[in-house]
What we know:
- This protein has about 500 residues and is α+β, with helices and mostly antiparallel strands.
- The protein has 4 domains: about 10-95, no CATH class; about 110-235, Acyl-CoA dehydrogenase/oxidase, N-terminal domain (Butyryl-Coa Dehydrogenase, subunit A, domain 1, Orthogonal Bundle), CATH 1.10.540; about 235-345, Butyryl-CoA Dehydrogenase, subunit A, domain 2 (Beta Barrel); about 350-490, Butyryl-CoA Dehydrogenase, subunit A, domain 3.
- The protein has 12 helices and 20 strands.
- A 4-stranded antiparallel beta sheet has the order 7-8-1-10, with no helix packed on it. The chain has a 4-stranded mixed beta sheet with strand order 11-14-15-18.
- A hairpin with a 5-residue loop joins strand 5 (about 40-45) and strand 6.
- It is globular, with a radius of gyration of 24 Å.
- It starts with 8 loop residues before the first strand and ends with a helix.
- Mean pLDDT is about 85; it is low at about 1-100 and about 105-115.
- Flavin-adenine dinucleotide binds near residues 240, 273, 322 and 477.
Amino acid sequence: MKNEVWGPYRWEAKRSVGLFASPCCGATAVVEHGECRFPCQTLAMEPCQTLAMDPRQTRSQGPAPSAGYGETSMSIICGDHMAPRQALGMEVQAWTAGPPSVNLHSPDRGLKGETMERLLPNDDATDLLEVVRDFAQSELAPRAADAEENEEFPRETFRQMGEMGLLSLAYPEEYGGSGQPYETYLQALEEIAAAWMSVGVGTSVHTMTCYPVATFGTDEQKQRFLPEMLGGSLLGAYALSEAGAGSDVAAMTTRATRDGDDYVLRGTKSWISHGGHADFYITFARTGEGKSGISCFHVPADADGLEFGVPEKKMGLTGSSTTTVTYDDVRVPVDNLIGGEGKGMSIALSALTSGRLGIAASATGLAQAALDAASAYAKERHQFGQAIAGFQGMQFMLADMAAKVASARALYLDAARRRDRGMKFVREAAIAKMVATDAAMSVTTDAVQVLGGYGYTRDFPVERYMREAKVTQIFEGTNQIQRLVIARDL
Length: 490
Ligand SMILES: Cc1cc2nc3c(=O)[nH]c(=O)nc-3n(C[C@H](O)[C@H](O)[C@H](O)COP(=O)(O)OP(=O)(O)OC[C@H]3O[C@@H](n4cnc5c(N)ncnc54)[C@H](O)[C@@H]3O)c2cc1C
């Protein structure tokens, strides 16, 4: 097997959409069910049929049965005039000559082993994790790259996950939840984030938005709000930060003024995940002065006077919208006040303590995906006559990455098990968030290094993983703020 020439490639794709490069003229083109013209040649592609560029050297094996989501399966051998450079949302398996095109989302990529070896509390959890992993790998992973590239918010995916019970794993069954311990929920979340980080983070955010009602709401509020929130027909957003109140949330200026049987909210929240797509906004607003002057409200998305800014242009998590939310005299009934006047700060901090574990688990999943991609690539890529995975320099880097992923997982699970047993877990949650998100940043950066120049291109997902990792060190309390939380508890 030679490694330094382009093609011939034998590869299999499960979707008929891809970005191809012509080495004759260097041009790239997106191909979708049809014909694509490079300046030098014409490329024809039919669903379930052949990709033909050089008839003398191109053979097709197909059609193969279509998979879900309108995917088209095919198996092609193409000649050495053309090499598939990138597969946007495609599952591609390539071997023979040239730079390896590794199937990074293959079900056999090692995550299965992780799933089978997880320490889970019972057989139900083992079955659940198997279902979640299959869903994540078959339905989320193949769509992630495309959706992130096109900045498409996956609203339908959240609806589907709600119907599957994946948005309510950690909540009581009497209100429509799945009644799972936090340690099971977080491991399921890890599988989701490993497949598609925006969906993992979105699941964590939604889970946090249900927390104030589930924990501090009256029975009437639980009956009124929770079934739809936990059932997934409603998606939530958590509106705490403001332009002038990030780490220092007590500096918020959004105000809620009592007017008869209503509160009237006025102000602007910043950085709100799911902004413009959510169905309700758990909103923290000032009803008095100081830290004890903050209250928590359930604000429906269709309330008059609620407006959303243009989505932020972010470096990663581009499938998840982040906007300002402006309250222009938004009126909500007094019945939508959660936990009583002045309880907002303790509700916000309590929700964030549990929410941070969701970010830790998501970051761990992202790091696991990067590790899997890097180790699969290292076994395929040959330099100096051998797979680069055989070099000790690479082995040590991969070993360090594996140790960081395992440490992150151990820490969030320790905090989750304490939470499940009713023990204090504030310090442990802050440690888990800090260590897991730092691990994600480091492991995804190293994954780019393992892939060399290819890691720096969008042909492979690791550069996206690296961009996605950065924000985990920032939101739900920066890692500097986690250190403050840890130090205060010593
Ligand atoms: C993609 C994205 C999604 C988000 N989603 C949401 C959401 O859904 N809801 C929501 O309410 N918010 C959300 N946020 C906001 C996020 O929680 C804040 O960005 C974060 O809390 C930091 O606030 P800031 O950006 O104002 O930074 P600042 O608070 O201005 O911090 C700037 C720097 O100063 C450091 N710093 C600040 N105070 C201290 C201190 N005391 N000691 C040491 N260092 C300090 C910080 O660590 C940071 O490095 C989101 C942010 C992003 C980027």
